[in-house]
Amino acid sequence: MENILMASEAYLSDRRCIWVNGPVIVGAGPSGLATAACLRDQGVPFVVVERSDCIASLWQKRTYDRLKLHLPKKFCQLPKMPFPDHYPEYPTKRQFIDYLESYANKFEIKPEFSKSVVSARFDETSGLWRVKTTTTAGEEMEYICRWLVVATGENAERVVPEIKGLKTEFDGEVVHACEYKSGEKYRGKRVLVVGCGNSGMEVSLDLANHNAIASMVVRSSVHVLPREIMGKSTFGISVMLMKWLPLWLVDKLLLILSWLVLGSLSKYGLKRPSIGPMELKSKTGKTPVLDIGALEKIKSGDVEIVPAIKRFSRCHVELVDGQKLHIDAVVLATGYRSNVPSWLQESEFFSKNGFPKSPFPNAWKGKSGLYAAGFTRKGLAGASADAVNIAQDIGNVWREETKRQKVRRNVGHRRCISVA
After folding, report:
1. Cα–Cα distance, 128 to 147 (Å, whole number)
2. Any residues with CB less than 8 A from the CB of 37 and at least 6 apart, and which?
3. Interior CA angle at 276 toward 275 and 280, to 5°?
4. Can you point out the beta strands (E) in 93-189?
5. 345 in the same domain as 326
6. Taking the CB of residue 301, how many other CB atoms lie within 10 A of it?
7. Does a structural domain hold residue 255?
């Protein structure tokens, strides 16, 4: 009997159940922090659960050293707290992390770290969400709440493509861009960068700056724009133009201005899509590359553009055009994906790709108290807009119910006095 009691106590301690008098926010990245701050401002209690051991783990643990914000800081600040005045127009990785830590401290956001959500489902009987988490030590916890905010983001898991021979035959080092820190260790080596988005371009630039022999795989068309045009942010110009002009005309103007600054890029192996950069981003979420120096390396030959890969062998890569390149290492700048389908037991609001089915600006709210923050494909500005909307929506219900509870308590108190 004593052994059974001990086993029962151990089981109960491992499967604790907690009632949360407010929403549970899954994820302590910028989206989760912004939502928590806005809820704090509304006076709504909350719990933030985070699988890592720190806030903004993508920024702290899965980014390269030279990273800076690609957009001006005014487009990247979170609600209710601007960047410090002394920060540059494009804050560094370290400065952005410091800003997020100050943000969490200011709004007293204290996530419950090292807790991975293994499942979240809506209980129709009780009308509540049941969120189960586990730690690396195997401790299980279940949170019961009325509202669930999904803030795990668009970049929760790395995407690693299946390429013939890469895992089975190639002898060199293979890393994903999230593991890449600096080109210093690749000095003098032949490195193949797979992917030509912002990460692929910047990793290639960093490799060239460290005297590595860099090649970058460009399989399809890509929009490359200057980060600034005549001293003004290209993104800022596009935002301003979209207030007054149709999207197709904004794209036309951006491409003309980009051609004046960058020249024709097709002769370097960079072909533009038939759809304009802003329309493409609106339809597919594919972000145009904002050049911060990689094009200069491409034009000088320090970074070679190569076509798609056919297969890898022990120390070579064979390309679809028949070329064979000797390489020492591969960096997979092949992007990220949402991990929501792996744990959220719901299919009405979220699609199989882990993004809300409804397009912006209606992608932040589902049914039964389910919300999404940071899935708009509109960067930090989109995440901030989601956070404000979510907090206002929950706050309105919270305040109304709080008023009703006070009225019921007052009525009950008067009845007690009357009876007495």
Report:
1. 8
2. 78, 79, 80, 81, 103, 106, 107, 109, 387
3. 70
4. 116-123, 128-134, 140-145, 148-150, 157-158, 173-176
5. no
6. 9
7. yes
Instruction: Give the position of tokens 């028949």.
Output: 322
**231 and 253 part of one domain:** yes
Residue 263 domain boundaries: 223-284
* Residue numbers of the chain with a pLDDT score lower than 50: 1-14, 413, 415-420
Residue 376 is given by DSSP the state: S
Check whether residue 228 and residue 213 sit in a common domain.
no
Asked, for residue 3, whether it belongs to a domain, the answer is no
pLDDT at 13: 41
The answer to whether residue 417 sits within a structural domain is: no
Residues 296 and 208 in one domain: yes
User: pLDDT for 171-212, tens place per residue?
Assistant: 999 999 999 999 999 999 999 999 999 999 999 999 999 999
Q: Which two tokens stand for residue 121?
A: 């489902």
Asked if residues 24 and 129 have their Cβ atoms less than 8 Å apart, the reply is yes
DSSP letter, residue 77: P
Residues 234 and 345 in one domain: no
Q: What are the pLDDT digits (tens) for 337-395? A: 999 999 999 989 999 999 999 887 889 999 999 999 999 888 899 999 999 999 999 99
Does 274 share its domain with 197? no
Asked if residue 5 is part of any domain, the answer here is no
Burial class (CB in 10 A: 0-12, 13-18, 19+), 341: middle
| Residue 190, CA distances (Å) to 21, 187, 303, 403 in order | 56, 9, 11, 67
Q: How many domains does the chain have?
A: 3
Distance, in Å, from the CA atom of 395 to the CA atom of 399, rounded to the nearest integer, reads 6
CATH number, domain containing residue 364 = 3.50.50.60
CA-nearest of 114, 119, 110 to 135 is 114
DSSP per-residue string spanning 303-356: EEEE--EEEE-SSEEEETTS-EEE-SEEEE---EE--GGGTB---SSB-TTSSB
Query: Is residue 302 helix, strand or coil?
Result: coil
